[in-house]
Amino acid sequence: xxxxxxxxxxxxxxxxxxxxxxxxxxxxxxxxxxxxxxxxxxxxxxxxxxxxxxxxxxxxxxxxxxxxxxxxxxxxxxxxxxxxxxxxxxxxxxxxxxxxxxxxxxxxxxxxxxxxxxxxxxxxxxxxxxxxxxxxxxxxxxxxxxxxxxxxxxxxxxxxxxxxxxxxxxxxxxxxxxxxxxxxxxxxxxxxxxxxxxxxxxxxxxxxxxxxxxxxxxxxxxxxxxxxxxxxxxxxxxxxxxxxxxxxxxxxxxxxxxxxxxxxxxxxxxxxxxxxxxxxxxxxxxxxxxxxxxxxxxxxxxxxxxxxxxxxxxxxxxxxxxxxxxxxxxxxxxxxxxxxxxxxxxxxxxxxxxxxxxxxxxxxxxxxxxxxxxxxxxxxxxxxxxxxxxxxxxxxxxxxxxxxxxxxxxxxxxxxxxxxxxxxxxxxxxxxxxxxxxxxxxxxxxxxxxxxxxxxxxxxxxxxxxxxxxxxxxxxxxxxxxxxxxxxxxxxxxxxxxxx
Length: 500
Hints:
Blueprint: E1 11-16, H1 20-31, E2 36-39, E3 55-56, H2 68-84, E4 89-97, H3 105-117, E5 128-131, E6 147-156, H4 158-171, E7 175-177, E8 180-188, E9 191-198, E10 203-213, H5 219-225, E11 236-247, E12 255-259, E13 265-271, E14 275-279, E15 283-284, H6 296-309, E16 321-330, E17 344-349, E18 355-360, H7 366-381, H8 404-414, H9 420-430, H10 434-438, E19 450-452, E20 455-456, H11 457-466, H12 472-479, H13 488-499
């Protein structure tokens, strides 16, 4: 009798890529009862999905490019995400000043009317016309800006969204493997046979009935690792977007949508209580997506746009932090990077067990993208499954009455000794699962060492044990943005202890 162990049963789905699209697909598939393995070569949301403008929005400017289907779908998803994750998604009001010489006021008003009405808006207020000479929103702006429009969109903590999608997928049975890359994959015996390699360099062979390539900027590289090219000629068009983070540039909760003379749009968004987030740029990119940063030219461009609108002088040297990401857009042949579609495109190869590659997409539409991916894979695999995510709540999102402020008030009664800024931050991060982090703690001492900025040993351990945080960067810049608030000495001490 042989002692050789029987080969492991194949996965139904092998997903490559731990960004919002990969984790969204893994979550949807696991919720349909499929056996799922997701592999990510670095950390969850390590690249594009943690480098966005942090917005759940339809994309007002996409109306200029007649992207009506994309805008309608994205605006509908605002409502879904407000319901499913009220702790990490919340409404914002955007002020769009009318700038003489750019888009006429009537064009802006018509576009905003469409924006208010084509997406099934239910919870968010409609557009208002502002007299910037009298309204408080005009105070930080230069005097020549006298008229503006105020409209609604939503904020999202992008990297936490990805982490929560992975948590939900895992709790529904998916296996999540970070620091694990796909080396190669081939069709063999009616299955995909894939070699994956751990961060320690250990190879392992897994099999799956279908392969999803959601590798973002690396989508073409993953395709090459299967020995195939996209049969219909789809390729990723890499477009770089950079952001600067300044000490707070103005008072008030409003964001601003600033038109640039080149047709692009720059947002300013209140950020992390004490800061203002400014972005983004649209630049062609052909380097290594793993090593990317905002250029001096991009910083000057963003500050130049700010100078057209705000009275306060702003220079790149004033920035506290900057970050950049690469959007892996579907190459539509446009010369202007800003005009390249943000819609998603699938390339599905059914010459054997299916291979689905994802090109493009935006963080707002990840859920619909996942539904469509499972629909197309279901056709190829001959197994229809029912969609389920539209009314599903993300981990921590089941707040009583979906009322975040009431939840914070209740939490303050439960843990009155926790500093208010820390409590609010943690309530946003964990929602109804805050108790899993704080547990039965009755004093700060019960949370272990305080590393600074409200980060404690208890929270860091939770992130390591339940959210795949391995390095200090995972904790300080993706599971949170505490790196912005810590001193260099505090961050260094935390890194030594967490990674030691």
